[in-house]
UniProtKB/TrEMBL annotation:
Topology within the bilayer: Multi-pass membrane protein
Lineage summary: Bacteria, Bacillati, Bacillota, Bacilli, Bacillales
Annotated transmembrane regions: 20-42, 54-78, 90-108, 148-170, 190-210
Chain ranges of the ABC transmembrane type-1 domain: 16-210
This protein's record includes keyword Transport: yes
Keywords: Cell membrane, Membrane, Transmembrane, Transmembrane helix, Transport
Protein name in the entry: Methionine ABC transporter permease MetI
Annotated family: Belongs to the binding-protein-dependent transport system permease family.
UniProt subcellular location: Cell membrane
Amino acid sequence: MLDRIIDILPELNTAFFETMLMVGISLLVAIVIGLPMGILLYVTDKGLFLENKFVKLVVGIIVNLIRSIPFIILLVFLIPFTKWLTHTTIGPLAASVSLSVAAIPFYARIVESAAREIDKGVVEAAVAVGASPWMIIKDIIFPEAKPGLISGLTITAISLIGYSAMAGTVGGGGIGDLAIRYGYYRYDDTVMFTTVIVLIVLVQFVQYLGDFIAKAVNKR
């Protein structure tokens, strides 16, 4: 068994970095698009300083629509868009497209939930003294919701690790692809066992790191 693990180390190393690439790209997209979307869902809600029923409804429908689609179906559904964007339908970059689309609404809802934990009295006080919407978002919402945003990013990262393994079933690369090609198709139990252990360790590390950072930035 040990000899077999040593034999697959080069491929396991490549698969690990492919997984990290997929998750990293998707997390970046989730922050760039999902974070503003989540803030928008919060500030346009009833009784808040940018209340807008139409925007709230449209963004909410888009988020709920994407979140309601199982990832494996979303993966297949986005193949034409993925091919147009990356000129391929296999590999980690191609898989990153569907992972990013799944990550955006997932993180947006977490951001909205984290923002709702903020005492509305603080926001109302800022509005009363004439603070601009951007100032309220930048100086109140972000600092107050920071621990929740980091915890949410941790949850998103862990979910994306699971999704990336699923992407391996359609040639997405990464640890999931290695497990399918060797562990399943070739009945190699050693490879299957090793990939599962690597995924478990990776998830535990991400969870620990996320919890540590969230506690470090929590001023409460």
